[in-house]
Specification:
mainly alpha, globular, single chain
Length: 184
């Protein structure tokens, strides 16, 4: 008896194979990533690598975007014509937000991440179809965050800004936490 597979599932599967190919090659210890993989499934070291947003992390996200959308590899990202590059930059910002919010969540500074229930590939494919728009919403800080007393006094727009301003410190603390965990 043959198995029925939806066309959408097949497209997501192929997008994941293409998108994660370089990640799997570069990070051999990674579990196999597929169309169901969430940011929360990724190891701390990879989340940190991507959240630091240096050239290597940016290239990995560029590779993920380009590969999963069938546009080539990440090295070609910045040489795309502007009509293709600008929409991809919006998608890049959605993905880097997800990575950074995951970093905040792992520190216990936020509890819920917008769109965290969607797989990485699903986010990219929905963005490609025009279903997703760039993120303006953020999560709520928890009392574990050092600036929580100041945060609770802010209005909604100020709270979003406050959370985004904490990202560099969150990345530094997450890095320190991983180093500390490794030393013990």
């Amino acid at each position: 008896m043959s198995k029925i597979i939806s066309l959408e599932s097949l497209k997501n599967h192929k997008a994941a194979k293409r998108g994660f190919r370089e990640w799997q090659r570069r990070f051999k210890a990674l579990p196999i990533l597929d169309e169901h993989s969430l940011w929360s499934d990724l190891p701390d070291e990879l989340i940190l690598f991507l959240a630091e947003d240096d050239e290597g992390g940016r290239e990995m996200i560029h590779d993920l975007l380009m590969g999963s959308l069938g546009l080539g590899n990440g090295y070609e990202f910045e040489s795309l014509p502007s009509e293709k590059l600008i929409p991809l930059l919006d998608a890049y910002f959605i993905l880097i937000d997800q990575v950074r919010f995951e970093c905040l969540r792992r520190l216990g500074w936020i509890t819920k991440i917008p769109l965290a229930d969607k797989s990485i590939i699903e986010l990219i494919r929905e963005y490609q179809k025009g279903v997703l728009t760039p993120l303006t919403e953020t999560s709520e800080l928890t009392p574990n965050h050092p600036g929580y007393p100041e945060y609770v006094l802010l209005n909604e727009i100020e709270k979003r800004t406050f959370i985004r301003r904490t990202i560099p410190e969150a990345v530094r603390q997450f890095s320190a936490k991983l180093k500390s965990d490794k030393d013990h």
